[in-house]
Amino acid sequence: MCGACGTTVYPDPVMGNENTLRNRILVAQTMTAVCAGLPGARHIAALAAGWSVTSATGSISLCYTVADIWIALFDRRGAVLQQALKVRALAEEPGGLAARVVTLGLHLARQPLVAGPSR
Q1: What are the percentages of helix, strand and coil residues in the chain, rounded to 5?
Q2: Range(s) of the domain holding residue 107
Q3: Looking at per-residue confidence, does 62 or 115 come out higher?
């Protein structure tokens, strides 16, 4: 819990100590760019305390960490998203926030429970 504002703070290894609105916006932009062109693409928006992920049908998931967002994005199209992540990983500058976001997405995509059955 934050002593200044009283809200719950969720530890996020990708964001580290720089969990600012600006960085949350950069994370949302990176993830939106990865998902661009995928069927049923979702909209990711930065909020004051996390992110919202809106599906094509209008359902909204609130996410507090970068891993939560990736888990919300991995549904039946895990293999397609994993390929998009591999392409994006080649374009990112190593060590930056966007690279950490993409690396976590690739790591989670390889987990069988997250990626789901291949089709």
Answers
A1: 45, 10, 45
A2: 21-115
A3: 62
